[in-house]
Amino acid sequence: MALLSRVTWREWLGLGAGLLALVTLFLPWTVLSADNPEVQAALSSLPGGDVSRSAWNSTFFAWFPPLLLLLAGLAVAAFGRVPSARTGGLPHLWLVASAVALVSFVLGWVLIDWQFGGEERALLAESGVSVDAGLGRWLAALAVLASLVAAILDLREARAESRRPRKLPRTR
């Protein structure tokens, strides 16, 4: 319990971002919509799994960033106050993991419609159906940014810690 009391707010934020990212995996990441009322009515009559997809039913760039954030958040919360882990590069690893998650997440957003085959994309475009981001994708964006900001702040704190004078053990 004493170890949990030593966890900093930055590390709690990293863990929280990882847990939020985990939750987003089960929310809608991709939603089909249309401006045409007839097409929207047709979409409404389809099963939910055909119109809305979770990260698990999307591309690698949908489920990879949240899992990476979760692993980084767990590692930081568990080992963030261990001096050898901090001096061994845990804050740097957290920053790299958050940056990789951000790049992967942005690629997933840019390539959002690539979860459908070429013929499906052509049919959707011809029908006036757009592939939009769902709630899960927006919340995952928040988690990625929170983890990245916390990692940057933690790295700055680690640098400041390394510059502070160390207390030498007393000798008799």
Order of helices and strands: HHEHHEHHHHEH
Strand content: 5-15%
Largest β sheet strand count, sense and barrel closure: 3 strands, antiparallel
CA-based gyration radius: 21 Å
Helix content range: 55-70%
Overall mean pLDDT stands at 87
Strand order of the largest sheet: 2-1-3
Name the quaternary structure.
Answer: single chain
Question: What global shape is seen?
Answer: elongated
Number of helical stretches of at least 4 residues: 9
Description:
α5 runs antiparallel to α7, α5 (60-79) packs parallel to α9 and α7 (90-110) packs antiparallel against α9. The chain has a three-stranded antiparallel beta sheet. It is built from nine helices and three strands. It is mainly α and 172 residues long. It has helices at 2-5, 9-24, 37-45, 48-51, 60-79, 83-87, 90-110, 118-127, 135-163; strands at 28-34, 52-54, 129-133. The chain crosses the membrane at residues 60-80, 92-112, 135-155. Keywords: Membrane, Transmembrane, Transmembrane helix.
